[in-house]
Amino acid sequence: MRAATEALIVIDVQNDFCPGGALAVAEGDKIINRINGLMDDFVVTVLTQDWHPANHSSFASNHAGKAPFETLTMSYGPQTLWPDHCIQGTAGAEFHPDLRTDPAQLVIRKGFRPAIDSYSAFFENDRSTTTGLDGYLRARGVTGVTFVGLATDFCVAYSALDAARLGYRATVLLGACRGIDLGGSMAAMTAQMRAAGVALED
Ligand code: VGL
Ligand code: ZN
Question: Which residues form the Isochorismatase-like domain (predicted)?
Fold first, then answer.
């Protein structure tokens, strides 16, 4: 069992990010057994859940003439456009049925504001609108955070970078993550995490 100051943050292990889902990550379901086991090692366990309204601005379908995986400039900067995914209340937004959810003390839902996407578990994509997770972790005395889940190069990486910026010791267990790899994003985000002092382990 890890110290009570260590938190496991399980990012977006939802049906839409697993094979058969709307924004499937290759082998997204292969990490679930390991994540389930890790939950027994941590006192503090948090799950995140991508949780979009149907009119969400990150969906290509909400922009005439735009296709998934194209980029659009939003008020807060460039935003990749995605297929409709993780729509609130749908089966695709549910956690994968094999993921243990009982050990988690907190579920952070993110991406619920139509006008702004939220990759990170800490901040939306403007990098300033908070999800409340930092306050929760600080209130529980957490100083170290370990990330697992989907997708390595988007929600996991943004979360880990924010954690490092906020002063947490941040670790990503790459073997318990899978990535989308869009336009070299795996290499780019891995390099950014390493440069920010995020520990990248298997
Ligand atoms: C994610 C793209 C869009 C993720 C969420 O969980 O990495 N990626 N929404
Ligand atoms: Zn999303």
Answer: 7-197
- Show the tokens assigned to 54: 């149907």
Name the active-site residue from 16, 18, 86, 110: 110
CB neighbour list of residue 188: distance below 8 Å, 6 or more residues apart: 153
Question: Which stretches of the chain are assigned E, i.e. beta strand?
Answer: 6-11, 44-50, 71-74, 77-80, 106-110, 144-150, 169-178, 199-201
Q: Which one of 18, 50, 84, 155 is the catalytic residue?
A: 155
Amino acid in position 7: A
Rounded to the nearest angstrom, the distance between the alpha carbon of 82 and the centre of ligand 2 is: 7
Q: Model confidence over 28-68: pLDDT tens digits?
A: 999 999 999 999 999 999 999 999 999 999 999 999 999 99
Distance CA 156, CA 128 (A): 17
Instruction: Give the model's pLDDT for residue 65.
Output: 97
Angle at 14 between CA 132 and CA 116, to 5 degrees: 45
Mark whether 30 is an active-site residue: no
Per-residue pLDDT tens over the stretch 124-172: 999 999 999 999 999 999 999 999 999 999 999 999 999 999 999 999 9
pTM: 0.98
Q: How far is the CA of 29 from the centre of ligand 2 (A)?
A: 17
How many Cβ atoms are within 10 Å of 102's Cβ, its own excluded?
6
